[in-house]
Design goal:
One of its GO terms (molecular function) is FAD binding. It holds the Pfam family FAD_binding_5. The protein is globular, with a radius of gyration of 18 Å. The longest helix is centred in the C-terminal third of the chain and has 20 residues. The protein folds into 2 domains: 45 residues, 2-Layer Sandwich (Uridine Diphospho-n-acetylenolpyruvylglucosamine Reductase, domain 2), CATH 3.30.43.10; 207 residues, Uridine Diphospho-n-acetylenolpyruvylglucosamine Reductase, domain 3. It contains 12 helices and 14 strands. A hairpin with a 6-residue loop joins strand 11 and strand 12. Strands 4-5-10-6-7 form a 5-stranded antiparallel β-sheet. The chain has a 4-stranded antiparallel β-sheet with strand order 11-12-13-14, with helices on both faces. Strands 1-3-2 form a 3-stranded parallel β-sheet, with no helix packed on it. It is α+β, with helices and mostly antiparallel strands.
Length: 264
């Protein structure tokens, strides 16, 4: 590590003010940031610890929506009664992020703000058409994710909560990279009154919707309909863990499994 200033604000307003400094970084669960700092991939001069902001923690109902505070831990999302009852697929996703230590410390807000291209939560936010609440505005899922480690958040803007529409016919399936436990490919499928949304993580520069799969599943919400869609490998990642063609095949397989799971 190296020398930096550590701040622990007592209010969201104070945290936002500290984060207007370009050399400052917000510390949520720390599962990504601290590791990046150790590897010298990130070198903030100031760490702004959000752990003291109780207003950013918790889960509640708001009409037909489930609202999850940005500092809510993965383990709490996985076991919350309201999430289990209204969006069981989201609880299942949270229950299989990383390992027990990661789930005990990692937060939904931290995951979304970091927007790792292989993270699980972005696929849920995009497929469920969630709304990201910040200290300045509300951002629709389709507008929030803008590429690898890039979001619509501005300097000093903090995620405060995420609002998910209740959706019971949904499922998330991922093929894990054994060492990191990140998704080589993860697919979140959701069928709602307004249509079908399919979000893919682990495939490229960031989470994305697969429109061809959405169209096929809107006509017939079955594994066979998903299997009939040819997945183009163009633009998908190719690395030491999997080729682009392999990832394309995984998108098809994981989608079929997710649909079968959503159907019950």
């Amino acid at each position: 590590m190296y020398a930096f200033t550590f701040e622990r604000p007592s209010s969201t307003a104070d945290a936002s003010k500290l984060l207007t400094n370009a050399s400052a970084k917000a510390l949520a669960g720390g599962q990504t940031l601290l590791a990046s700092m150790k590897l010298r991939l990130a070198s903030p001069e100031t760490l702004v610890d959000l752990g003291n902001l109780s207003e950013l923690t918790g889960i509640c109902r708001d009409g037909d929506n489930i609202v999850i505070g940005a500092m809510t831990r993965h383990a709490d999302v996985a076991t919350n009664a309201d999430v289990l009852a209204s969006i069981p697929a989201l609880a299942d996703l949270a229950a299989h992020i990383g390992d027990k230590q990661v789930r005990a410390m990692g937060t939904i807000g931290g995951s979304l703000a970091n927007n790792d291209p292989a993270a699980c939560y972005p696929s849920a936010v995009l497929a469920l058409n969630a709304t990201v609440h910040t200290t300045q505005r509300k951002i629709a899922a389709d507008d929030f994710f803008q590429g690898m480690f890039t979001t619509a958040l501005k300097d000093g803007e903090l995620i405060t909560a995420v609002s998910f529409p209740a959706t019971r016919q949904a499922a998330y399936m991922k093929f894990r990279q054994p060492a990191s436990r990140f998704a080589l490919i993860g697919v979140f499928v959701a069928k709602t009154a307004t249509g079908v949304r399919v979000a893919v993580t682990g495939g490229g520069q960031g989470v994305f919707r697969h429109k061809a799969l959405e169209a096929a599943l809107a006509s017939s919400f079955t594994p066979a309909a998903a299997a009939a869609v040819k997945i183009d490998s163009a633009g998908l990642s190719s690395d030491m863990h999997a080729s682009a063609d392999y990832r394309a095949n995984l998108i098809s397989v994981m989608t079929q499994r997710a649909v079968a799971k959503a159907m019950g």
